[in-house]
Design goal:
The protein is of the alpha+beta class and 628 residues long. It is built from 20 helices and eight strands. A hairpin with a 2-residue loop joins strand 3 and strand 4.
Amino acid sequence: MNLRWLNALLWGNSVALAWMWGLGLFFSVQISFMFGMQGLLMFAVPNALGLMLFGWLTQIVAKRHPGGHESLAQFFDSFAKPFRLIFYIYQIVALSLTVFALVKYLFVPLLGTIDGFDGKAVIALSVTMSVFVLLAVGCLFGEEFGIRKIKAGHALLGGLLFLCIVTVLLSLSPAGVGQGFSGLGMENGYTSNRFWGLAVPLIVGLLVGPWLDLQHWQRAIQIHREGTSIRLSYIFGGIIFFLLLLFHGHLAMWVMGNAKGSFEVAASGLDDLVYGHNIIVQYFSNGFTGNSLIPAAYFGFLVICVLTTLDSGYVSLKWFLEKNVEKSDNMLISIIPKQIIASPIPTFFIVALITLGGYFAEFELEYFMVFYASFFVGYAALAIARCFVPNSQQPLPQIRMFSMACLCLVIFAFGYMVDQNVLMYVGSLLPLAYVVWLVTTTDLLRLVTEKADQMIHAAAEIPAIKAIAKQEQPTPAQVVAPDSAGSHDLMGHFEGKWFVYSMVATYQDTNSVGNVYFGMYPLYVGKTRELFFNATMPDFNLKTTKFLILTRSFEHKFVRETREFDTITVKIKVAKADRKFCTLEHQIFGSEGQLLGKGKQSLLFVSSKDYGLLDIPPEVYTAFMKYL
């Protein structure tokens, strides 16, 4: 038990360090500069709670799904598929924000001001070199550790971080923050217009933020694999992270209250607001007259926090890209060497370009943060819904979600620039409202469809309606029946993700009453399934195969009957797949397109030698995934 607690604590330390990115590092200074302790708590509390809630809820997800220690990994494989692009964009923005913040608020102030054209060229070159050095070190640390060893590496870095913090605290005695407790940027605190303008977006964005972070999903999966409590690990992580934010924000308040002459702030950025992200760096680089070890300890604190984010980003990107490249049938991916596409290094080059572009465009940290308060909110909320709300498992409306995200991003950014709280509220809350509407209307549509289907089936049994239907004999577009010339697709065909096969019921299929015998419907499904296998795995050879496909279970709901010489059309598709089992869904239609029945079946895979249970073979994954 003690070892499990220790393992949870080590993972909690890694969780906290990976989440201590540019947002936690330098915005904790800015929010303290603006509103003092009130602003710091408004930022730190939902931030830490968001981490803890992620761990608490993913523990529930892991327990709800079968698969033992692999349950969360299996769940993520199917859960992440519609969110792949958003996961990737989220990671790029997070890494860009982190590198940008360290370069602009640490390295540039340390360089100082150099006049003239040559001076600007030197600064530009220094900034560019700093960006690539940071990313190179992040790649090095990521390759060195990997997810299985990262908690040990972060334990070592966490120990160094603790020494840096203790060194700073003992040397400065920051217990007396003086006037800095109220902040210098906005002295009105809770009555400030901008305070409440930031409060709602921060709370919303920080509570749902971890759900789109690949670093946290990878950690949660690995923690569960090791048999450690995800919930406990993230509680430890939330507490450690909260203390780190308090330290940095409190240090900013101490500098404001005790060393005002050692830093300068002025309106900057595209919005001409006053930003104080680097007031502590200015104090240690300009106004500090004590032991030189103290500035080194603080700068070490900043660098360690950034490196533990970059190496985590490298490891998670490598895991995510490799997983998706292996399963992809995209022609572009097949042309470009997989070693390049699956590597995080090209992504790190994109991060470098975004960082340099943001710096030379004179961006501020908050311009990157806008994405997390608006653009990603809807996706994160829908991700949570898809974990716990059954009716939200419908295909993700990609175009609508992206359009809504962009709309909210623009609304929020405009509201931030012109200091209009209402627009900032709309930009942050509209995505949540849209996801609620999306989930509830999907559920309502499903319920109405089911009830309407039942009413149609019941009404179809009324003699008068039966007679009218027999006279009209409609031919629906979704059912492909043999044409008048008698041509027939003997091997079946695909309609989207459905495999379709048609046949004609004859005398041998019927019972004494003249209806098709109920036992024939599973035979129709079985025949279609075998043709589906043949279409998707044409090279399968029963004599040389290393695995066999067996039926684990079969379910069928009979809806209506059909007769001799009616056309029977069976449609079958892959509904879902996890590590061990694959589920196929089927529907059966009659000559007039009426639904005759529907159901599903579960497949398992065994060794052809000893019938031992196997994971789904790679050949099957490759064949089936394009139709999932």
